[in-house]
Target: ABC transporter ATP-binding protein
Amino acid sequence: MEPIIQINELNKEFKGKKIVSNVNMTVNKREIYGFLGPNGAGKTTIMKMILNLVKPTSGEILVLNEIISPTSYQYLKKVGSIIEYPVFYDRLTAKENLNLHCQYIGFPHKGLIEEALEIVGLKEVEDKKIHEFSLGMKQRLGIARAIVTRPEILILDEPINGLDPIGIKDMRKLFLLLKEKYEMTILISSHIVSEIESVADTIGIINDGKLLKEVRMEEIRKENTEYIEIDIDHIGNAVRVLKDQLAVKKYEIENDHIIRIFDQNISQSQINKELIINEVTVNRIEKKQHNLEEYFVNLINGGSRHE
Ligand SMILES: Nc1ncnc2c1ncn2[C@@H]1O[C@H](COP(=O)(O)OP(=O)(O)OP(=O)(O)O)[C@@H](O)[C@H]1O
Model:
């Protein structure tokens, strides 16, 4: 894996208030990096620092092996982005908007405009005025604008926010196309796990300006496939039995009566039997599937997982 964005010990303060704290992050070439965190976690601020729109208080950002300084701008030719909501001229058509953008940035290859519209699925409506566009169409046009120069890196701030289920599905397809066919590296922020769970290769989970975890999706899928959830009366006794009699190693205490067991080599019936023998009342025992949503919520809330 080849790092394409590398962030080291990044900090940002606004008027003495820490917004980003000691963030270390690596986005690898040709991956989709899902940047997950609740509203106000600091995602946009970090994206703006990568794009040199906001200056870090301290720390280092490397993009395509170049250390970003306040005067770096050449690298931006290789980076496309949508930060916050994409804005267009409402009375102009989709194509006219992209034409204007290319003139503005001095990009001469007009042929690529048609191609960008084709890629995002807006070729047929290129002559429609923007005020007739839906939110999903505007988001796709934003992406067309961001990819018209064929950047190596695409930075998208909440591109799925507010879209309907079909719009979300189309967007996911588009991300995969851009990664696979056009070999782009994509950094996407979101506060809704399910929006990017299926397309992300890596996720970085951020809360309160701190990167809590950076992990490959395949690891999460492997780690969190199935678990057994038990509802018991006596948490202390149950934990003792699980550890001493069954050598359970990976478990999580959800609350004062629910435990989740992640060890894959211990069966539901073994657990049930051992708890009953040891006089722990089992109210419920069942197999469940862990999903990223729970993983995310658990991390944000500082869950009590034992390994
Ligand atoms: N220019 C600024 N001056 C002061 N505070 C700021 C500024 N920009 C951002 N902040 C604050 O920094 C924090 C992080 O904001 P940021 O927009 O980076 O979060 P986010 O994770 O992108 O959330 P959202 O999805 O709501 O945009 C917020 O508390 C915000 O109010």
